[in-house]
Model the fold of this input.
Amino acid sequence: MTAEEKRRAHQKELANQVNEEAKRRLTEQKGEQQIQKARKSNVSYKNGSQMPREKDIRDMKIFIDKKYETVVMPVFGIATPFHIATIKNISMSVEGDYTTYRASNLKAPGDPSVPSTNLQNAFRIIKEVQKRYKTREAEEKEKEGIVKQDSLVINLNRSNPKLKDLYIRPNIAQKRMQGSLEAHTNGFRFTSVRGDKVDILYNNIKHSIFQPCDGEMIIVLHFHLK
Done:
């Protein structure tokens, strides 16, 4: 049997194993009720004691509570809190020394007695809090389904096996960055030239594939995680 025939036979064997594993997994899941993850409720304050007592609130001005990610604004003369998650978008229009402010379908009174300085400052802070909240929500969504692994045990021996001048995929930054992959006691650590670190433990690797440079322009080391 030639090398090519052996390779094809091995690929067929691996394909059969993958199909059998998928069939077993689907069989186990059959009949099981999938529990939908409950949507997180965004509540500004659990009780009235957490409501801030700032001067801006007493003066019926817009106040942004960064700690609880809440916008407190006057509605019919009553300071009313709105969690940042309930505000889809905001817009602001300036006319002379006065400002009209809109937050999604909510509108702060455009009373001429309200100077634009407070609303301009509120607009800027709301954007900052909104950006921080959306970034955190996106990070939490990305982490869903990720297998939590143990901490990497660093081997301080300088003779650890190391591969240099590598690129990791997917990219850990907007720009592709070079780095090195070093073997430690219980896993690998990729370190970029900027100092970013990605740890991969040995017991979290299901399959590994190595493509040498024989007849290829790119050397590939692929880890299929559990």
